[in-house]
Amino acid sequence: MTTATDIKKDIRLLSDAAVEDLFKEMGQPAFRARQVQEWLWQKGVHDFEAMTNLPKTLREQLSASFEIRPISVDKVQHSSDGTIKSRFRLHDGHLIEAVLIPVPEDGRFTVCVSCQVGCSLTCKFCATGRMKRVRNLDAAEIFDQVVLVNRQCLDAFKHPVTNVVYMGMGEPLLAYRNVLESIGRLTSPKGLGMSPRRITVSTAGIAKMIRQLADDEVRFNLALSLHAADDEKRNEIMPINEQNNLSVLMDALSYFYQKTRNRISYEYIAFQGINDSLEDAVKLSELCVRFPVRVNIIEYNPIDDAPFIKAEADQIDRFAAYLRKKDIMVTVRRSRGKDIDAACGQLANKA
Ligand code: SF4
Question: Which of 52, 256, 281, 311 could disulfide-pair with 214, CB 3.0 to 4.6 Å?
């Protein structure tokens, strides 16, 4: 049965220009549109009635035609290392996850957000990849994750979120427009006013869309989930590589760097006996010559019945040392939030 609520549109799906046009049509002055946008994107208000500087008749008109569909907190888990994982419920009942990764000693408080319900890319080491892709999140649903996690961060650490990474559930470049729109809201002075330099979008590697980012002259950082430095191995663990092989990806990244000069990093989960040998390090170093790149080596977190083992610490050290010798910037990241399944590749809405 269709109800009146079903046919109301979420006002946050309208662009700024569309809201301005709407208010013009309603015979309202332009500043009223700005007031509403401020309530929605700066103050995070989700109820027209609470927009107290609008005339009552206008609030009623808006409530009659529109709704606001915020995400809500479904479950919060705290890791012993300070990481906080949140499960959020979307208006249609679907669940997604976001993770706060605090590093107070560096003044760094990073939120990792999701951009799809599930994922279509089936990377073999990833729990999300075992869930079917259901739908993309809209820009407001992505934005809300940052707002809600920012509140958690203020509560727990008396510090706002400093960085946002699009590395949660889903492939950001397959939710392209919504991801860019959400970043627009996060970085706009009319939104959260964050610097794009503090935002990183991580892709499993969709060459065409990396070129699109370059053509759109985005200002945020880009990370490639590389995880293997030759096609044979990469095809095995990331089926997306079959249509986007390393040569095509390197051309796309090079194009991205030439056009934007934005920072590029490679994410590299170290799997024992698969991609952690010196030979792998040599191949990886060869992918670091065409543009400046930082390599983040990440400790693997086991997911249920996946046939991977994490690489030994001394093997990772040798691997990293080789890259450093080649003047490549490398960081080795110990995983965070493992005890609550919040680490890289572990997000899967587990009960
Ligand atoms: S690693 Fe990312 S792209 Fe690959 S299956 Fe998981 S969520 Fe999807």
Answer: 256
Residue 290 structural domain: 72-340
C-alpha 309 – ligand 1 centre gap (Å): 18
Catalytic residue among 67, 97, 141, 299: 97
Residues 61, 169 share a domain: no
Rounded to two decimals, the pTM is: 0.94
Q: Are residues 258 and 151 part of one domain?
A: yes
Burial of 327 (0-12, 13-18, 19+ CB in 10 A): exposed
- 181 catalytic, yes or no? no
End-to-end alpha carbon distance in the chain: 31
Per-residue pLDDT tens over the stretch 297-339? 999 888 777 789 999 999 999 999 999 999 999 999 887 787 7
Q: Give the domain CATH number at 325.
A: 3.20.20.70
**Residue having the nearest C-alpha atom to atom 5 of ligand 1:** 129
From 112, 171, 341, the mutation candidate for ligand 1 (largest count of ligand atoms within 8 A of CB) is 171
> What pLDDT, on the 0 to 100 scale, is given for residue 6?
55
Looking at the structure, tell me whether residues 189 and 54 fall in a common domain. Answer: no
Look at residues 183, 158, 151, 157 and name the one whose alpha carbon lies nearest to residue 262.
Answer: 183
